Amino acid sequence: MLNSADNTLLTRIGPGTPMGRMLREYWVPACRSAKLEIDGAPEKVRLFGENFVAFRATDGRVGFLQEACPHRCASLRLARNEGNGLRCIFHGWKFSVEGKCVDAPTEPRSQRERFAQSVPVRSHPTHEAGGLVWVYMGEKETPPPFPDFEFTQLPDSHVFPLRGIIRTNWLQGLEALLDSAHVTFLHATNLDSAIGRELFQEESDMMLGDGAPIFEFDEKPYGFTEGAIRTELGDHDYARVREVALPFFSFIPAAPTGPRIVCCSIPIDDVTTAQWYISYNVDAPVDGSNLTLMGNWSGNPDHFNADMGDESNLWHQDRAAMKDGHWSGIVNRGNPYEDFAVQESMGAIVDRSQEYLGTCDRVIYRARRLLLDAVRQFDEDGTLSFTGARVDYTSIRALSFAFAKEENWRDVRQKLLADFQTDGGGVPAQI
Ligand code: FES
Ligand SMILES: [Fe+2]
Questions:
Q1: How much is the pLDDT for 426?
Q2: Residue 91 CA, closest ligand 1 atom number
């Protein structure tokens, strides 16, 4: 549990709040790169309770501006995208990728240029990597180093980002992404299904076979490594070793090579969150993910769960299917649909003072503690945790593997990672 003051400190991310100020200091995914066409429609992006538009200019660069036109607040989603800038359709003022007003044709010609230069425009730096447009919304002149995770260095063909949108606070999203115990229960039917067994092979039985993993942690400059060790499986043990790059990213354990997923929970506002599921494969192109393979989805990569239902229909839970043996009753859907239903069922901002935590929640407790320490530190002296030159983002890789009982999971993991690094990691030749 968490007292109400700490819960508020962690969950409120609007302008001026301590957590909102801190989280804005990290690079965050704003939208899919493929969504922005040269001189095409500006894309609305709501982040941290504020509204923006992203657009791709004539020369291919991406601009990120306040949605409301600085003149009289008409939406720049309606703007013309031409000549390396957005031109508001109301009075024709034009704004560049750099966030400057470059034309104000309603002003007398003699003072137009000077007037345009005086118009305040809010814009933020962007960076494209891993099939995503990232934005830095912080206050610093120089943004922190870009988190060059493995997937951000792959060609777009090797990365498949999908965005879910949930009607909850960002921390509920993050906590669901950290929780290694729930898979045995919430996702039991998917793990046991034909497609689940095809995707996870013998690991399905290992996840299903022990619902009380032992948790062990290693602190890392970017957050922590979480080993969830299942020891009740017979003659071997099973480790799911998650990498948590705070404040947003959870790398989901997977076999040492092949397709994998990293997830992140990015605040749209206090009660709405973008939950990204980014599939990638260093060895081969990807055009789908566990999520799209495991069941029906909306077909919209920018809101893959648009068809998930809500509290009024209990997220389409099917009681008859449950009587028939389906665990969650959320039938023919990928795991995130089950995750999202339970997350939303807690309410938009769960009151963590009402919880009763157990052993399986050690990871949740740990993440909250680290985030509380980080936000207090940031509030006190501006120090930003979990980032900086010493952080090696590229080598972060979450693994799952079976191992002999007499072995130590940390040693096995080290060996697997070393094997991966010495064989070049199968990184495609064009990189
Ligand atoms: S409101 Fe945009 S130019 Fe007037
Ligand atoms: Fe889950």
A1: 39
A2: 3
* Cα 175 from Cα 121, distance rounded (Å): 36
What's the gap in Å between 82 CA and the centre of ligand 1? 16
For residues 346 and 172, what is the distance between their CA atoms, to the nearest angstrom?
9
Q: In this predicted structure, what is the pLDDT of residue 421?
A: 66
Q: By alpha-carbon position, which residue is closest to atom 1 of ligand 1?
A: 72
Determine which residue's CA is closest to atom 3 belonging to ligand 1: 91
pLDDT at 425: 45
| Lowest mean pLDDT across 7-11, 152-156, 182-186, 416-420 | 416-420
Nearest of 358, 291, 292, 345 to residue 317 by alpha carbon: 345
How many angstroms separate the alpha carbon of residue 91 from the centre of ligand 1? 5
Q: 177 C-alpha to center of ligand 2: Å?
A: 7
Give pLDDT tens digits for 1-28: 799 999 999 999 999 999 999 999 999 9
Confidence of residue 306 (pLDDT cuts 50, 70, 90): very high
3-state secondary structure of 261: strand
Distance (angstroms) between ligand 2 centre and the Cα of 110 equals 62
Nearest-ligand number for the alpha carbon of 92 = 1
Rounded average pLDDT over 247-266: 94
Are 191 and 182 contacting, i.e. CB atoms less than 8 angstroms apart?
no
Average of per-residue pLDDT values in the chain: 93
Does the bond joining 125 to the residue before it have cis omega, within 30 degrees of 0? no
Q: Which of 67, 77, 90, 119 to mutate to test the pocket of ligand 1 (most atoms within 8 A of CB)?
A: 90
Give the whole-angstrom CA distance, residue 122 versus residue 48. Answer: 15
Cβ-Cβ contacts under 8 Å for 312 (sequence gap 6 or more): none
Q: CA geometry: angle at 6 spanning 4 and 10, to 5°?
A: 115
User: Domains along the chain?
Assistant: 28-135 (2.102.10.10), 150-426 (no CATH)
Alpha-carbon distance of 212 to 214, in angstroms, equals 7
